Amino acid sequence: xxxxxxxxxxxxxxxxxxxxxxxxxxxxxxxxxxxxxxxxxxxxxxxxxxxxxxxxxxxxxxxxxxxxxxxxxxxxxxxxxxxxxxxxxxxxxxxxxxxxxxxxxxxxxxxxxxxxxxxxxxxxxxxxxxxxxxxxxxxxxxxxxxxxx
Length: 149
Fold this sequence. Notes:
Oligomer: single chain
Strand content: 35-45%
Distance between the termini: 27 Å
Number of helices: 2
Shape: globular
CATH topology of the largest domain: ATP Synthase, domain 1
Low-confidence stretches: 145-149
């Protein structure tokens, strides 16, 4: 029995796989592995990497907060922000990281400090995930349809 996985942001559903074998979730209390027939759980998400596995294929996402609803046959991720590892623009992320580092080093007004810190955390996470994907070139990507809802 497979597990149905959906990843949704405020803007749209970015991923759906009706027959995943496993999901690794960056819960706020730590990483959580979910297999089919998992006990129901509702928990918050931290900043981290979410991995969906199906056979020899996998899809990785940078998740930046939110909540996840785990049921025995379905996982619904409601992310504040989420990005597929295959959609990460490394050059743009590197530029954003350097900009955030520069702002923090030079000192920013207090109202911008939180945003600069979050930008740096998001960029560091995206780069970490992108490097993992590049280091594992033999891993197959899960074929799915993105939906415009």
